[in-house]
User: Fold these one by one.
Assistant:
Number 1:
Amino acid sequence: MAEGLDPEGPSAADLDRYGDELVSCIHCGAKIYDQAELCPRCGAIQEEVEGSLGWWVYFLVGLMVVLMLMFVF
Ligand SMILES: [Zn+2]
C-alpha cells in the first residue's frame, strides 16, 4: 500500500529510527510497530502470532544435532 503517512501514525523520523516494520492493530487496524505490545490508538494488547515459535524451535534443532553427534561418535 502506498498511502500517505497517517498523521496519527508513526512519523517519518520514527520510521527512520525503528525501521518500517509495521503491522495492523488486531483491534482497530491502525498501523503500529511490529515490536509494539500495545496499540497506541486503542490500547489493545497485540498478541504475538509469529515469533512465538522462536526459541524452542532452535532448541529442538540443537537437540537433534547433539543427538546426531552422539550417534556418530
Ligand atoms: Zn488499535
Number 2:
Amino acid sequence: MKPLRQPRRPSRRPERTEVRRLPDRREVWVRPVHPADAGPIAGGFALLNEEEVRRRYLHPVKSLDPAYLRRLVNPEPGRSFAVVAAEPLPPGQALVGALARLSRDPDGDGAEFAILVSHFLAGQGLGRLLMDRLVEWARANGIRSIRGDVLEDNVPMLALCRLMGFRTERKTAPGGGLVRVVLDLDAPRKRRMPRR
Ligand SMILES: CC(C)(COP(=O)(O)OP(=O)(O)OC[C@H]1O[C@@H](n2cnc3c(N)ncnc32)[C@H](O)[C@@H]1OP(=O)(O)O)[C@@H](O)C(=O)NCCC(=O)NCCS
C-alpha cells in the first residue's frame, strides 16, 4: 500500500472567497458552499435543462433528494469539498449558478469530482476555475488523484478535462458510453493553451 502523503500547506486557502467579473460583466462570488445554499440550489435545479441534468447525473433526475442536498451543503471537513459560483449576496439570498464537488474515497487517497455550471453562466471560464479550486483542495489535503465519469457525448466536459491534463479510460454503461477521466496529482501540471 502506498504511504499516505502529508498534506501540503497551500499558498492560498482553497476555501477562500474570490470575487470574479465574468466576460458578460456579471459579478459572482466563488466560495465554499454554505448550508444556507440548500434552498437556492434546490430552486435553481428546476431551471436546469434536461441535457445538463443528464450530463451531470448521467441519467434523468426530476428533483434533488433532500438527504443528498443536506450532504452537499454540509461537506465533511477533510473528506469532501464543494465550491460554488453565486450571486454577490449572503448565502441563502444568493442564486447559485455553478457548483463543483470533490468526495474523497473512504479508504484511499483518490477522490471523485462532479461539476455543473448552469447554461446561464457557461462558457465564461467558471468550469475551469471551479475545477482548479477542487484540484487545489485535493493537493492541500494529500489526495493523489481525482476522477470522474463523463458521458462520451459530453464534448465540453471532455474538452475541459483534456485541457487540464486528465487522462481518459473508456467505460461502458447501460444506455450509453462513459469515459472515466483521471488526473494524477503527482504528475507535472499541464500548461494552459491560449484561447483561440
Ligand atoms: C462542462 C462544463 C462544466 C463546462 O463549464 P464552462 O464554465 O462552460 O467551461 P469553461 O468556460 O470554463 O471552459 C473551459 C474549457 O472547456 C471547454 N469547453 C467549454 N465549453 C465547451 C463547448 N461548448 N464545446 C467545446 N469545448 C468546451 C473548452 O476547452 C474551454 O476552454 P476555452 O474556453 O479556452 O476553449 C459545463 O458545460 C457543464 O456544467 N455542463 C453540464 C454538466 C456536466 O457536463 N458536468 C460534467 C459531468 S461531472
